[in-house]
Specification:
The structure is a homodimer. By secondary structure, chain A is α+β, with helices and mostly antiparallel strands. Helix content of chain A is about 25%, strand content about 40%. In chain A, strand 3 and strand 4 form a beta hairpin. Strand 2 of chain A pairs antiparallel with strand 2 of chain B, so a sheet runs across the interface.
Chain lengths: ~130, ~130
């Protein structure tokens, strides 16, 4: 049993609060943190940020399922995910994915696959808040 | 011109000192931090850690070249690399690669390619320090 199981959450808290959701490890040679950051432009227009809303009970269930399934593929991995909801200003992160694996190739692949599944399967909606008008 | 150019270094300082070598950005939607961590076993035996040594002037030149070449492929990226030398205990990181790009696929590819080139091209040697004997 892992003393530090995988983790997922969805709330209006900044992703930085969850950087330490996984402890450092002597069994994992690769540790990746991916931040998905709100950019300052959308379709060429300057924006203030993005307002994220979710069907929350379903979104957290989907996040948990994605993390659990990736975990079950290889129980030696650790995965932590936090998706922020509410208004996220340009330059701030709306998503954190942290992955720890024995070797690096698996860490990159797992983190990227986790991101792909979140984008495809989690019911979170984005409303762009423009700077002018 | 980027207000925050890419960065590379080689020293006995912990990688955590260099996490902020790149500032947060409103132009980069993807921000990846890769930590290469010393594991507690080597060939099935418990270890205390790894002692890294380098032909330093050449190693830093190679790190700089790798970062510069990846940067030149796309000037909109940012890349920061720190490789630690000296003794690194099991559970601590010997390598940090941070990459910021507009979109996520490029961030994963760039970070992974940077790691591949560091392993292949930078003259750093590892001496395993075993726990027993």
């Amino acid at each position: 049993m892992d003393e530090n199981p995988s983790f997922s959450s969805l709330s209006d808290l900044p992703v930085e609060e969850f950087e330490r959701a996984l402890l450092s490890s002597v069994r994992h040679g690769a540790d990746i943190r991916f931040h998905g950051v709100v950019r300052e432009t959308e379709a060429g227009r300057l924006i203030k940020g993005i307002d994220y809303s979710a069907y929350e009970s379903m979104a957290i269930r989907e996040l948990e399922r994605i993390v659990r399934e990736l975990q079950e593929e290889n129980p030696d991995r650790r995965i932590a995910v936090h998706h922020r909801v509410g208004f996220v200003a340009a330059g701030e992160a709306s998503l954190l994915i942290r992955v720890q694996t024995a070797h690096s190739a698996e860490a990159f692949a797992t983190c990227q696959e986790c991101l792909r599944r979140i984008k495809a399967q989690v019911p979170i909606w984005k409303r762009v808040v423009y700077r002018h008008g």
